[in-house]
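dumping this here before i forget
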Amino acid sequence: MRQSLTDVVVVGTGGAGMAAALTATEGGAKAVVFEKRHTPGGTSNLPRGGIFAVESRLQREKNYPFTRDQVFQSFMNFNHWWVNAKLVRAFIDKSANTIEWLERQGIEFMELPSTPSPHLVGGYATGHPVKGQGTGVIVMKALRARAEEKGVEVYLATAVKKIVMDKDRVAGVMVDGRSGRIKVKTRAVVIATGGFSSNKGMMKKYCGFDLGTNLFPLFDLKLTGDGIKMAWEVGAVPDGMGPQLIVGVPGPGFFESQLPIIQGQPYLWINQEGERFFNEEIIRNPVFAGNAIARQTGKCSFLIFDGNTKKHMEQEGVDYSNIFFPESKLNDLDGQIKTLIRKKNTNVFVADSLEGLAKKIGVTPGPLRRTADEYNRFCEKGHDDLFNKNPKYLRPVQEPRFYAFRIFPSMYGTLGGIKINEKTEVLNKENRVIPGLYAAGYDACGIFGNPPDYNFFTPGSTYGFALNSGRIAGENALKYIKLIGK
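structure:
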């Protein structure tokens, strides 16, 4: 790098990091961004949906009826107030301005529909879809280009290893790059390294999951919690750590097929004891389903359906589709399953009888038969006496062949790790600010509860939090360096 002294060091090139660097630079600061990977963006390259905002210009133009106050109350109620209320408020209040800020960076948004359509009943249409394919990639390219245009220096394959303190405040970082280790003096550091979704030890110790055994990340971006651990080393207090749970069928070939849509269908779901354990229609909100599965023996479940339901999905279409798996009708389901079995995917099963299926999935046949018989009676009379599932999703399990998918908790990534306040300032064990240290995005979170459940009632909120908390961090780092002077 050309200089060993800068105003702000940002650790991580994701949405939070690039938003922080660009914001600080717009205010006149010198910012440098370090990224340990050879490619920028990290988790922020992945979002395909919209970006959260409330009372944006685009929403006002369509007379969307909900307000920041309403969404704030909904957000807090969803999280049972187990979150930082001031941080939630700051995030929501910032969100509309962030959409306009993104537009100034050259990002174009699609026109919103005249009638808001929430993802879930009782939710709010907070997502703002970006024009083009792949929201995350488009946003990250635009932010990096604008940041470098403004003079931000971005270094890839350059890992920050340590935060250097001068007494109680940030004074620099130690960096390992292509030319060895150097010390970079700085007045402020923003940590935005994207979480710890690939760190088996942290996942086990702080969340109780075994990565690769009972929890499977959708994407392995080698996120090992580096920023979180560096913050802890200088006195930051841990806060609200957990995986952003959804559901998934692991194993080779699955996500290259049409079959992922099946893991989101409200048919018969059982646990390893052969019993139902939830109202299957909640699978529409995969966070709820992920939580329910995580409570079961082995943290796994099985989706069961029969030949008639298979024909229904092929001829009429699935009951649930979504933005990620928009196809409604499946093609040659048997052929696709054979391909997975040939690829040695051990989480997909087919049998000619229910008892045969039970043996293949490792469930005692008797309990599964009793569960299926009870469920079929509910289907026949059109009422689920156990969980009151909507009758239109009551499809009996009685016509050979019989199918099962073993489903585990999956995750987009982790949330939490560093406790921050509404200014994204990092806090120590005495709840005091560590001067010059900020954290944003997945490393901090603080708005999704404990464990940190993603809020599908307010779509786009995780990526939205990354961008908004990054901007808040950049603004407050700028104020701090101006306050302490040169």
